[in-house]
Design brief:
The complex is a heterodimer of chains A (559) and B (283). Chain A has 19 helices and 20 strands. Chain A has 559 residues and is of the alpha/beta class. Chain A has a domain at 292-537: P-loop containing nucleotide triphosphate hydrolases (Rossmann fold, 3-Layer(aba) Sandwich), CATH 3.40.50. In chain A, helix 7 packs parallel to helix 8 (188-205) and helix 15 (437-449) packs parallel to helix 16 (467-484). The longest helix of chain A is centred in the middle third of the chain and has 18 residues, at 188-205. Chain B has one domain (2-44, 67-281): MetI-like fold. Chain B starts with a helix and ends in a 6-residue tail after the last helix. Classes of the chains: A alpha/beta (559), B mainly alpha (283). The A-B interface holds A 18, 302, 336, 339, 341, 361-362, 365-366, 370-371, 373-375, 377-379, 382-388, 393, 396-397, 400-401, 431, 433, 444, 447-448 and B 1-3, 7, 10, 110, 172-174, 176-185, 192, 195-196.
């Protein structure tokens, strides 16, 4: 390898916390060659972001470098002063962050913000800065850069905001770009667009790039070399192809197994644990027709926008239907109307032959169907009352909907639900913030299944989880469905997950159904162009395949 | 919030700053004096004896006697009970109603929220003490009405606070989860949202107690609410005002000091609670 552009040797970073110092990095070694695109992959808490921040000299006051060194082009910048680092930021290295909207100043026009960066680093005049900012917007593929210069961040989509951030990051021709989860929170098609643009720009300008991500698929798609981090250490580092074809470290092996590939099934995720029970006939279903029959569902919001525009579908008892779409497609709105947490503007919702859509959401908690339709929410932490222990959270629906009052009967049912979701009984008296992400997800699922519903609505239940936890939760959901004969309405932006879990799938766009059918058919042989676009955008993790960097199309893609 | 509560405890009892300790000791003393007033007062606060009128502080009467020869110390001790009960009842009332009204308003949003919001704005546009005077004058001159008036003028602050805090949380997943678990909207507000807002409101309560004491004393100073010969700090200050020029300093200094110190203690307690609950203000 040529002389590295940035090298990190034995870096140790410690954070001051109320409970004493916490060592976030415990000896990290990394080296990035000029012009190289390198991936740093790890789950939450592995220290991948801290590494980037330390390299940029951006650790906050609580974080301290306690050992090791950081060299940029051979010069030691480990403890370089602010004054020395400031001119380097932007021109030598720059960084783009997750959640671009919060990184942009909401009260200044984007043209001004890009101009600020240019004038601060390059000392350009106002006119020069404006001209160059326009040019940069064109580089990041804004279709009408002159007009967009005058836009405020809130007028742009998430993907556009991220492209503005990229424009600012590359404004001063840095040699190294650190991208920290640059596409987390963006839709798959937008993610593909942003990543193609980033990698294309890096190629074109000979800029080195570090892509920090939790997504193995994304890293293998775009990076030549990948380092895997776990608990503040780099446990394995290799060329992208070799790393995942022959993972040497047990942690890498676990990650590879848990990452969905184009062929993986629920059984194959996370390897060995495939002893799923046989499927049971649907429980407690008397009627002949489908369990849930939604007809012509429409939701118009108070401000006049139409969230859902005439959606119809059915779910058979014990069946599973996936609702797929990008943000703004109306999938969560449909989930809330079907689970009677939101009133529809028009349309019928027939559950087990009864028109439950006629019951207003504010009265629905009094009906017997409240028990039959339960919902699991997206962010497990946010969906648990911070003042309730796990026990209280699971016990609440049992008290309200089953009418259990005595301590003994409640404890018995709560513990039974906890056992079904694999939540250790001794964690039941913990508060949400004392639980891990996977444990919180289990509490959320236990709360929903404790009352033995017939239809479970799952609103992106794994979106906030690490891949290894996601694999376990998906297996749990599949097992529960087979054991109990519940029907699932599964909401997700992740087609890969839907493919594994659902028999039927509906693709939504802007509140309308684009395509509906049996999952296998849609994935093998989709009729709608939009579905094919969605499918093509999934950065599937392909173990052992040569890295396939899509040739960037720097001029052609419209903004 | 639970994290905050845990920190709160550590903040108060672990490495408490001196002001916090002063506030806690002061408030505990005030409460103790109020509860034990009848037992610890050395003399009958109402027994007048003109022969010992206007005596300066001495061995017999530690804080001297007033123009009717009543023991100042005993009167101050017994007055603590009245002033604290007015303040505590008023604050309890405004907290209870403010939390429910504000919480409902923030949870429902829409037209109800706008109406409540505008009403609160109108109330806050009045000079609050003048509003309290008007209310007592209109409702009738009694201690109970002083409590109601104090409660009403404090209400807007609780409504605003509860509204903002609930409004921020109403789209959280656990609120929807509570609905799916079979809770009505009313239950969600009362048993899910308000308990989560409580730590923040504790700060408001503590700061408010100081204001409520001042307000009650202010009203009786101008002759509303409690009436002589009832021992009350505001009345004592008002009666003493005549004797300032003649150098009878103990008549006004001690009631004034009691007022100042009690308000100070409650304010310090409020500040301490706010610091302890707000992680950003902790070092």
């Amino acid at each position: 390898m040529t002389d590295p552009l940035l090298s990190v040797n034995g870096l140790r970073v410690s954070f001051a916390t109320p409970d004493g110092p916490f060592e976030a990095l415990r000896g990290v070694d990394l080296a990035i060659a000029p012009g190289e695109v390198m991936g740093v992959v790890g789950e939450s808490g592995s220290g991948k972001s801290v590494t980037a921040l330390a390299a940029m000299g951006l650790l906050d006051r609580k974080g301290r470098i306690v050992g090791g060194e950081i060299r940029f082009r051979g010069a030691d910048i480990t403890r370089a002063s602010r004054r020395r680092l400031r001119p380097m930021r932007g021109s030598a290295f720059s960084m783009i962050f997750q959640n671009p909207r919060s990184a942009l100043n909401p009260v200044r026009r984007i043209g001004q913000q890009i101009g600020d960066a240019l004038r601060a680093h390059l000392g350009l005049s106002r006119a020069q800065a404006t001209a160059q900012a326009t040019e940069l917007l064109r580089t990041v593929q804004f279709r009408d850069p002159e007009q967009r210069m005058h836009s405020y961040p809130h007028e742009l989509s998430g993907g556009m905001c991220q492209r503005v951030m990229i424009a600012m990051a590359i404004a001063c021709q840095p040699q190294l770009l650190l991208a920290d989860e640059p596409t987390t929170g963006l839709d798959v098609t937008t993610q593909k667009h942003v990543m193609d643009l980033l990698v294309g720009l890096a190629r074109e300008r000979g800029m080195a790039m570090v892509l920090i991500t939790h997504d193995l698929g994304l890293a293998t798609h775009y990076c030549q070399r990948i380092a895997v981090m776990e608990q503040g250490r780099v446990v394995e580092e290799n060329a992208a192809t070799a790393l995942f074809a022959q993972p040497r470290h047990p942690y890498t092996r676990r990650l590879v197994l848990a990452s969905p590939t184009r062929e993986s099934t629920i059984e194959s995720l996370a390897g060995g644990d495939a002893d799923l029970p046989p499927r049971l006939p649907p429980a407690r279903h008397v009627g002949q027709g489908p369990l849930l029959d939604v007809r012509g569902l429409v939701k118009r919001f108070a401000n006049g926008t139409i969230g859902v525009d005439g959606v119809s579908f059915t779910i058979a008892a014990g069946g599973s239907l996936g609702l797929v779409g990008e943000s703004g497609s109306g999938k969560s709105t449909i989930a809330r109307m079907a689970s009677r947490l939101l009133d529809q503007t028009a349309g019928e919702i027939i559950f087990d032959g009864q028109d439950i859509g006629a019951v207003r959401e504010r009265d629905f908690h009094r009906t017997r169907w409240r028990r039959d339709i339960q919902i699991v929410f997206q962010d497990a932490l946010e969906s648990l009352n911070p003042r309730f222990t796990a026990f209280d959270s699971i016990a609440d629906p049992l008290r309200r909907l089953v009418g259990l009052r005595t301590k003994a009967s409640l404890a018995a049912e709560v513990e039974a639900a906890a056992r079904r979701v694999g939540l250790p009984i001794d964690l039941l008296d913990r508060l949400p913030h004392q639980l891990s992400g996977g444990q919180r997800a289990r509490v959320g699922i236990a709360r929903a299944i404790a009352v033995r519903p017939r239809l479970l609505v799952l609103d992106e239940p794994t979106a906030a989880l690490d891949v290894s936890v996601q694999a376990v939760v998906l297996q749990l959901l599949e097992r529960l469905r087979r054991e109990s004969g519940m029907a699932y309405l599964f909401i997700s932006h992740d087609l890969g997950v839907v493919r594994m879990l659902c028999e039927q799938v509906i693709v939504l766009r802007a509140g309308r159904i684009v395509e509906a059918g049996v999952t296998a058919d849609i994935f093998e042989n989709s009729q709608a162009a939009y579905t094919r676009e969605l499918l093509a955008a999934i950065p599937y993790f392909v173990p052992g395949s040569p890295t396939s960097v899509t040739p960037p199309n720097v001029t052609g893609v419209p903004a | 919030m639970t994290v905050a509560v845990a920190r709160h405890r550590r903040g108060l009892w672990g490495v408490a700053n001196p002001a916090t300790i002063v506030a806690c000791v002061g408030v505990s003393l005030l409460l103790l004096v109020a509860i034990l007033a009848d037992w610890i007062a050395p003399y009958d606060p109402l027994a007048s004896n003109v022969r010992i009128a206007l005596q300066p502080p001495g061995a017999q009467h530690w804080m001297g006697t007033d123009q009717l020869g009543r023991d100042m110390l005993s009167r101050l001790i017994v007055a603590t009970r009245l002033d604290l009960s007015i303040a505590v009842s008023a604050v309890a009332l405004s907290f209870a109603f403010g939390a429910v009204i504000g919480g409902t308003s923030g949870y429902l949003g829409g037209a109800a929220d706008r109406w409540i919001g505008r009403t609160v704005d109108v109330m806050m546009a009045f000079p609050l003490f003048v509003l309290a005077m008007a209310l007592v004058a209109a409702l009738g001159n009694s201690v109970a009405n002083v409590i109601y008036a104090t409660a009403i003028i404090n209400l807007p602050f609780y409504i605003r606070f509860a509204r903002a805090e609930v409004n921020m949380r109403r789209h959280f997943g656990w609120v929807e989860a509570a609905r799916a678990s079979g809770n009505s909207h009313a239950r969600v507000v009362l048993f899910f949202l308000l308990p989560n807002v409580l730590p923040g409101m504790a700060v408001q309560i503590s700061l408010n107690l100081g204001w409520a004491i001042l307000n009650a004393a202010g009203l009786s100073f101008i002759g509303l609410g409690a009436r002589p010969p009832t021992p009350e700090w505001g009345i004592m200050v008002a009666e003493a005002a005549r004797f300032i020029a003649t150098g009878k300093w103990w008549l006004i200094v001690f009631p004034g000091l009691m007022l100042t110190l009690s308000v100070l203690c409650f304010n310090l307690l409020g500040d301490a609670a706010r610091d302890a609950l707000d992680p950003r203000r902790r070092r």
